[in-house]
Amino acid sequence: MYGPKCATRTLRPNATRSFSTTSRFQAPSSLSINAGRLWETLHKTCEWGASHRYGENTRDTGMARLTLNDDDARVRRWFADEVQKLGCSLSVDQMGNMFARQSGKLGSSAPMIAMGSHLDTQPRGGRYDGILGVMAALEVLRTMKENNFQTMFDVGIVNWTNEEGARFPKSMCSSGVWAGAIPIEKAWNLRDIHNPDVSLKSELERHGYLGDIECSPKGYPLAAHFELHIEQGPILPANERKIGIVQGAQGYRWLTLTVQGKDAHTGTTPLENRHDPLLAASRMIAASNDIAKKHGALASTGIIRVPSNASTNTIASEVAFTLDIRHPDDHVVNTVQDECLNAFDSIASQDGKGVSYNWTIDTDSPAVKFDKNCIACIKAAADHLVGPEKSMLMTSGAGHDSVYTSQQCPTAMIFIPCKDGVSHHPTEYSTPEDCALGTQALLEAVVHYDQSRAYEGNVI
Amino acid sequence: MYGPKCATRTLRPNATRSFSTTSRFQAPSSLSINAGRLWETLHKTCEWGASHRYGENTRDTGMARLTLNDDDARVRRWFADEVQKLGCSLSVDQMGNMFARQSGKLGSSAPMIAMGSHLDTQPRGGRYDGILGVMAALEVLRTMKENNFQTMFDVGIVNWTNEEGARFPKSMCSSGVWAGAIPIEKAWNLRDIHNPDVSLKSELERHGYLGDIECSPKGYPLAAHFELHIEQGPILPANERKIGIVQGAQGYRWLTLTVQGKDAHTGTTPLENRHDPLLAASRMIAASNDIAKKHGALASTGIIRVPSNASTNTIASEVAFTLDIRHPDDHVVNTVQDECLNAFDSIASQDGKGVSYNWTIDTDSPAVKFDKNCIACIKAAADHLVGPEKSMLMTSGAGHDSVYTSQQCPTAMIFIPCKDGVSHHPTEYSTPEDCALGTQALLEAVVHYDQSRAYEGNVI
């Protein structure tokens, strides 16, 4: 796979914090993003889909801009206009992924370096998850344009369709198709969770976003993929760091457990005669937490469901719950799953006359290691901007489009802190300063990467 | 409170199994209920509300005859016709309770001896719970009529409105109003759980069942209340008994626990940073079972709810669950509740950054002891019919209209076995033989009671 060796060759071993003066390759000192413009643009575009007011100020809302709803179509049209104003070409592939491309100095037809993320949100989402990554990328291109700065190779932006998987239930959907991990027919055929008459493909057609370009690295190749994102967790603020240099993403596996018992009257059925699936599920959830804790892993249950006719005085007939196991090492994910299932076997016969259960794996996302050169370019930017005391290497806890792009092109991510680690929530918040810092880091990392690439290719 | 002393004076101390020949008071030997007619009537009337087919035979269905729906109105009209054909007077009170009354030999205006239960069902209920009690009472009156047998005092049937509390959420609703335990305005104002525009009162009016008679022992006094019911549990079959002589009902208390946490991303939030209400609720449910087991009590959770926007990769913000605690001794119910709340306090701070919780008592039904003379009359009937080896004294695990009537008049219940102890389920089943045996026991108990009452009152 093509990729400059940023860490070992491009950056001087003794590079100090002042990257812009000590690195071989540097952005012009004037190349500084416009923090105010970034902030205004971010929030102005959030008027499309603003929802879930939590405060009195105009912008004290969350977002409900679900994939390919009318607001998502509006922000897409706006985005298309803005990148074309900058002189970018715009391509749309068969999944509605939008590729904005700014020509580099070299006039090379080689793949562009992409800054990508997504404009869709959760139904009760916030204003930063995904959106910041696209708006930061736009701010980077605007900054370059107004400074008459041209990268060597082409550089651009990707807006990935349906990252959240909230309306059409497959997360990181279109980067997954692009990477070859999700068959396009399956993705096209995803149904609106509230209206099975509507498919992702029918919504692409309705809004004019069913492009001709094959959704693949062959259809639209990328030289690299950089993504700025909010951390969505408490680690950066807890460690008083401003920039996270994301080396990879932890593996995760989602299971659904279905526990079958037998409905019975709570007043007339002795404990020893019961097949109580809710009691068993409760013990299973508690056990999975204990097992994960022992291994330094995560195990979480977000959903538990009893039948719709459940009542206070009836033992449920069946209970279903989800189990989300995560760890940066796939081997540990496997171990936690195995130990959980062993524990569940014991629990199933522990109370009364026992229960039966079955389980399915709904999602299995192996751990990902990002590209060391992309990481090095971000580290150089972070060192320049805040120094190693205020940045840190970290592993993403959540999935992102970069997890899929990393299968096909050099990829890494930049995290910035978000308040209290809260995301997927209307009150999700990052400060204007942190958004600006992350955007400046994105710009500098991309410039680094571009210059390293040119150097490696002996074109400069 | 008025009541004959059936056990100590009416029955000879040396009464043997052959009650009909050894008791001072006896039904004529020809007074035997018609098992076939009972069975046919029971299932014919179940055509109104039949639902939830589980087998191929016509009657292989459960019931969905919710209080005052159109099918409930149909069976009420049918019931009114049938009792009037027998020469009964029919009265309807302000809660739609139906009182059918057959005159006794004495022509006394004293309160009638009632056989009562209910014709409404759960939404996924069966063909026996409640329905059997009313149809058995009708069969008793039919048997008396065709044998030209008259009790001394008036005897009759009560069809209590909304025993299940499934459509209008208050169980044993109208016997509760009658007993003075539930204010009538509150009962009238209960809303259909699926349609808040419809109240219990508006449905009484729609079907012409909003009677003039005050719903109280003053409005319609009862001398006694006998109720035949399926056991709804496994104790009779487990002990190979055919008739349960129900001495009372266990106390029960229903709580709703609401556990508040904080929604957070499962992938990005370390275990030690979480406020996870579903994990805490799971530990609470498991703990409540352990505590109840220690005390020989019952503790059950039938309902658990996460927010509607719950997802696999989000820690829930709040979880609510029900807790149903039961024991024949109120003191034990209190102890179990206290120990559960103590355990919940510890659990609330056990994991991560902890959770908070609050609790409400939704229903508190103290333990009930039924009338010893009514019990003695049922015991005499059971001894006569199956002998002490095939009957047993027991405590009702469930609530019944008799729990409320016992607050105002001498009351006891007869249980018969139901298959696998299953009730509140379409497959609920009792054999024709057991239904007939219970009905015969009801007849004989009522005749006993009537004759004892007349003897006590020196009218025979």
TrEMBL record, chains A, B:
A single GO molecular function term of this UniProt record: hydrolase activity, acting on carbon-nitrogen (but not peptide) bonds, in linear amidines
A UniProt-annotated Pfam family: M20_dimer
Coiled coil: none
Keywords for this protein: Hydrolase
Domain Peptidase M20 dimerisation: 249-349
Domain of life of the organism encoding this protein: Eukaryota
InterPro entries, per database record: Amidase_Cbmase, Bact_exopeptidase_dim_dom, Peptidase_M20, Peptidase_M20_dimer
Protein family membership: Belongs to the peptidase M20A family.
Protein name: Peptidase M20 dimerisation domain-containing protein
